[in-house]
Amino acid sequence: MKKRNYLLILLLLVGLTTMGWGQTFLGKDGGLEGSATIDNDITYSVPQEGKWTKTKETITIANETTITRSGENALKISMTSETMKRVYTPQFTISASTSKWYVQFYRRSSSTSDTQEQCWGVIRNGTEMKTVTYKSVPSSDTWEKVTYAPTSTDEATTVAGVILTKAINAGGDVYIDDFCIYAATTVDNTAPNAPGSVTISNITQTTLDLSWSAPSGGTDDGGYMVVRYNTTPSADDDPNVNGIYTVNNTITVSNTGTVRYIGTETSFTDSDLSPNTTYYYKVYTYDKAHNYSTEGESSDTSLPVELQDFNAIPGNGKVTLSWITESETENLGFNLYRSVNKNDEFLMLNAELIAGHGSTSKRHEYSYVDRDVVNGVTYYYKLEDVDYAGKAKLHDKVVSATPTSKESDANINQFRLYPCFPNPFNPETTLRFELTEAARISVQIYDLLGNRITTLSDAAFQPGEHNLTWSGRDHQNRLVGTGIYFLKISGDRGISRTEKVIFLR
Ligand SMILES: [Ca+2]
Ligand SMILES: [Ca+2]
Which helix (H) or strand (E) holds 53? Predict the structure, then answer.
């Protein structure tokens, strides 16, 4: 139900967007990263859909994969003739009422003497609206940003960008990339705000979910872009200003990132991940002019692991550590620390991280056997969890155990458990146990799926016999359904038992 509401809201926003001022045209084809092709074989007198075209044979247009500004491709225009020629972007459709708009692109030449000079604009219904004078590329091997605001009251809806170019001296090559046309009354050099609270969830061996919230001020008729890194990205690892990308393009500044998502949704499932690998993500907002925000901040997950139980059970020449988690968030795994003095330094016990379950709302049980112990010595243990970002959290609880050759002494003699009676039961069943020493006893009740139903007891008990009664009600005093339930009994000095009961309604 929640999901449906969310989708409805999105549809409403999309509807508002297309009615609003902002429109962006050409899309990825303007960065040569879309489906459009480059047709150098035929000359055209008018722009064409789905391809970059030229008007005369004495000019060459080609796909360029070395000198590119953004993504993998750019357009290379080569000419030697001083006579003016035209290059058209793919033709696109606009609203009849569009009259104020901007042409924005980047050009580059390796020479300022043997090159081309150009003017540019749009062509609508056969009428060109273009810069008045030709302009040469001002410096070598540097991308120059150019913008132009044509004005048109023509109501024709088919339009294309146009570059008019002629040779300087012997002529040469000019490269074009990130060609964008957008409807606006003023040039847009203002990046939108960053998306909010970026979170990662549902991590599996090969997939994970990213989600974020829309920024204040919205996307300004753009969307969101997600970039993935295999190394920790630096602050300067960002997309080019006005860069036009497509999925799987790479962005290299200090580190190489891969574009994984471009669109208007506020969540994305990344796939094709390698197990046991750390990934880093940056999520940006971009606007109609492809201005990029700073990356969104990840929200802090302060409780990666909800620890329900942690026990040390003494044995003969060993101590078994066991713990239960109620939920885990981005949990890479656990470390155990040990000391022979509660107030001394605790040293890491395990050689390798004890693998966690990533992100899960299910209950999980873990155990680790410490065999590097001497009988009769008391050992103290602490548990730490480590999340996917490498952040470690040491849990407060300290447990202790004294291994002994008389294994049964430690566990059985101090604690005697009788089967629950009656079983099956309705309306109630009684758990009876005996203690030879005072102990804190916790009894948690779980259903078959591992959901915790209620806490029957978590208190200190004196030596002697005790009864605990469960009347088949959960922690909110609601009667549970017919089925199998588990009573997980744990306590001081390694007491750890589980009883199965059946409730019949
Ligand atoms: Ca490109
Ligand atoms: Ca803007």
Answer: strand 51-54
How much distance in Å is there from the Cα of 190 to the middle of ligand 2? 4
Calculate how far, in angstroms, residue 144's C-alpha sits from the geometric centre of ligand 1: 14
Q: Which ligand is nearest to the CA of 67?
A: 1
Closest ligand to C-alpha of residue 70 is: 1
Please report the pLDDT score of residue 12 as a whole number.
Answer: 30
Distance of CA 73 from the midpoint of ligand 1 (Å) = 4
Taking only the tens place, the pLDDT of each residue in 219-272 is 999 999 999 998 888 889 999 999 999 999 999 999 999 999 999 999 999 998
- Report the separation in Å between the CA atom of 291 and the middle of ligand 2, taken as the mean of its atom positions: 6
CA 191 – ligand 1 centroid, Å: 20
Three-class DSSP category at 382:
strand
pTM above 0.90, yes or no: no
Q: Which ligand is nearest to the CA of 32?
A: 1
Cα–ligand 2 centroid distance for 214 (angstroms) = 15
What does the angle CA 61 – CA 63 – CA 66 come to, to the nearest 5 degrees? 125
Give the Å distance between the CA of 242 and the centre of ligand 2: 11
Three-state SS string over 144-186 comes to EEEEECCECCCCCCEEEEEEEEEEECCCEEEEEEEEEEEECCC
Tell me which residue of 215, 234, 228, 200 sits closest to 292, measured CA to CA: 215
Q: Which domains does the chain have, with CATH numbers?
A: 24-183 (2.60.120.260), 203-286 (2.60.40), 305-407 (2.60.40.10), 414-503 (2.60.40.2550)
Point out the ligand nearest to the CA of residue 191. 2
How do residues 389-424 score in pLDDT, each as one tens digit? 877 888 878 999 999 886 454 455 678 888 888 888
* Regions of the chain where pLDDT drops below 70: 1-22, 205, 275-276, 298-305, 406-413
Per DSSP, what are the bridge partners of residue 358? 331
Distance 195 CA to ligand 2 centre (A): 14
The two structure tokens encoding residue 184: 């606006």
